[in-house]
Hints:
The protein is α/β, with parallel strands linked by helices. Helices cover 41% and strands 20% of the residues.
Amino acid sequence: MKLYINGEINAYYVQTLCMLFFPGAKFSAEEALTDDSDVVTLTIAQNESGVSARAEMRSGRRCAVKERFEPFRAGITKVKTAKIAAGVAIVAAGEELFECTPPWGILTGVRPAKIAAELVSAGLSSAQIRDALCTDYFLNPKKAALLTDIAEREAAIIAATPPKTCSVYISIPFCPTRCAYCSFVSYSTKRLLSMTGDYLVRLFDDIDRTFDLIASLGLRVATVYVGGGTPTVLEPDKLSALLAKIASRVDPASLSEFTCEAGRPDTVTMEKLKVINSYGVTRVSVNPQTLNDMVLENIGRKHTTEDFYRAYNMARESGIKYINTDLIAGLPNEGFYSFSRSVDEIIKLRPDNITFHTFCVKKASDFLRNGTEVYSRSGGETGKSVDYSQVAAGLAGYLPYYIYRQKNTVGNFENVGYALKGAEGLYNIYMMEEVHSVFAAGAGAVTKLVAPDRSVIKRAAMPKYPYEYLSDEIYNRAWSEKNALTQAFAKEYFV
């Protein structure tokens, strides 16, 4: 599509607003303009009293034009004022053109709870926060209430987190098969899976260097998260070696949380679960995504509903303290009835955590490579499915504790983690709300350095692909760059 901006405003922000109504859009200056082109023209101007925005939105031969003047207000920066004016104008034009109202108003970021957290910190009451979210950001009242609830719960957990802590993420980028919706750097062919032995040798060096770096900074590790990919794709002896290496560098009993993903039921065995439990892991995730076998086959999950129940029951019997399950609303060819049934059946199991995702169309996914039509502006029955999951979880005693959003989700809906009281996944909060630094080891792992006051964040990535990660030259260069960045960051913010 074509986007024209006249005036000063962040172009990426405007693109994310456009994608609320043109999901999957690509913004290209080279694209030829035709009578059928999707076009958005934003004109923005500022005077001494505020910011005016005019949005003209065209789709084929249809057109809508909306304007907004946003006055300057105490406590609202000029940049934010411009974003509000532009957001309201574009959303209003899209609503008229497509008869579709984004549930999250003009909020487009990954971390919507940050906005609510600022209001919590300002001492506003729950009612005042909800009102501000609806008035200033045009959230649906249900979303405003959800966000307020989460922000207040997160604030209490964050306040109880000791200073000078950090988390560690360890990447196992291998899966038994690749899900059709996935874009993570994970590898599933027999040849690539044969690399796991060499990969672990390199990873153990990475883990040692990472924990040495953490110790040099005087930080205490609060949570460890072993993710992927699918860590339980490793055979029991390799999984044991990995967890033993971690336990040699940090006492699992000293951690607030120790997570190991077991997301693919077809990789779960009692032997692996006993290994996981023996090293003090406190949380695993066993994810069905849906309890509809036809949908599972369609999305490339090479397991059945029966496989999930088998894996879940073994996880319960293993003695691991907390179990998370994931469901995805809006999967291709799954309607409300099928999804709501999955919600009901999962709640009956009483997992400690349930994460309700909304189907997200990743650019590198097999669905798009195969030409499958998956983008949806309104989401069809997805909104009804999302609402049902949240109401059902609440009625069953689960509390929402973290939230994030992604571009190109069906209907622009959200991903929300629910937990029984006291069973919240701490790493999820620390990572999503950027509470403290997260040091990452493994291919594709990204270390996120966070200043104590959370005002500055720097990132350092390890080589993306396993074959790069196994290259001495590439690996050592990445580590040298990460170490230099960390030392400079620590000198300014940690000392």
